[in-house]
Amino acid sequence: MNTSEFIAASSNKSIEKTSFTWQTPSNIALVKYWGKSNPQIPKNASISFTLNNCHTITTIEFEQKEKTEEVEFDLFFEGKQKDAFKPKIAAFFTRIKEYCPYIFEYKMTINSENSFPHSSGIASSASGLSAIAMCLMSLESELNTSLSKEYINKKASFLARLGSGSASRSIEGPLVVWGNHPEIEGSSDLFGVQFPYKVHSVFENYQDAILLVDKGEKQVSSTVGHNLMHNHPYAENRFLQANDNLSKISEILKNGDVKSFINLVESEALTLHAMMLTSNPYFILMKPNTLEIINSIWEYRNENNSNICFTLDAGANVHVLYPEAEKDAVNNFIENKLSKYCQKNQYICDTVGFGAKQL
Ligand code: DP6
To answer: Which of 45, 53, 102, 342 is deepest in the core (most CB within 10 A)?
Structure first.
């Protein structure tokens, strides 16, 4: 695999002090990434909707220092020093150092905040790592002014992937594919690409209401989860199925067949959890209220001939997906019938978004 295009050219420009702020979104996978090999190479291609309201805002201040062997950084989350998050970020810097050697020449102060409630169970690694990647690319493009926007986004996604796989899908929008797939032109295991074909209008402005069923700490980290796909009895078939589902959803997104979209997306969510149920050690991340919500969605869909459906990530929360045309009706249904299954009745209404923004 050719990663040499991502090694930063050396620069003789000297910048003493600078800072950049980026807002980058979370994303929700429709075809799931679950299983990887080193270094952060997915076992199958995945596709996600980029979100709009769920995002991270990160500022990095860079201060020039003597070049040493160590990456020096301080980390603040919502205004407070957060040493607990440091090992994950330190591991990220170690993985990217050959591509961004300039990180040894700056002391970095990272200030980060999320738009969604802390420990809401919403994966913050995608938005968190993509924001850091964009700040690094802003520095890199000051050091080397010839970088194109296309290259900056591609390398940001490449770097973000090395921090957290799904973060590679949080640079652009509204639909991003990560993982090499024969039917998606330009797709790669190394970075995410915008879905390259014209999407049917029904999938524009799609809505995602995130029902916060369980806001507790994750029982199983995603890295542990991915590792359980090694020696998993169903792994190889699962990877084939995911790539096949990616071919199918690619057609569905183009032709606007919402009924097939619903079937595929819900099946992907349940299959992801089936992989957890059938791994060893096995685990259950759904809660009783997750199932209450799923059953209520099915009932509502049947009774109202609605196009509402659900997906799940590696947790108990439910993402309710629906076309914009059904927004008022579904929002009423969520408020009146589903919010009681959420912790403190909390849910977040989001829509599909367009990716990273510099502030
Ligand atoms: C279930 O991207 O969080 O949300 O690469 O280990 O950081 P790491 O994993 P992560 O896994 C996300 C898994 C998922 C499905 C998906 O987003 O595709």
So the answer is: 45
Residues with CB under 6 A from ligand 1: 29, 32-34, 40, 46, 123, 125, 164-166, 222-223, 226, 272, 313-314
> Cα(166) to centroid of ligand 1, in Å?
5
How many angstroms separate the first and last alpha carbons of the chain? Answer: 34
| Rounded Cα–Cα distance for residues 42 and 87 (Å) | 22
Query: Coil, strand, or helix at residue 321?
Result: strand
- Tell me the per-residue pLDDT of 180-239, one tens digit each, with 9 for 90 and over: 999 999 999 999 999 999 999 999 999 999 999 987 666 678 888 999 999 999 999 999
Handedness of CA 276, 277, 281, 285 (dihedral sign): positive
pTM over 0.85: yes
Question: Residue 223 has which token pair?
Answer: 């890295």
Query: What is the rounded distance in angstroms from the CA atom of residue 53 to the CA atom of residue 242?
Result: 28
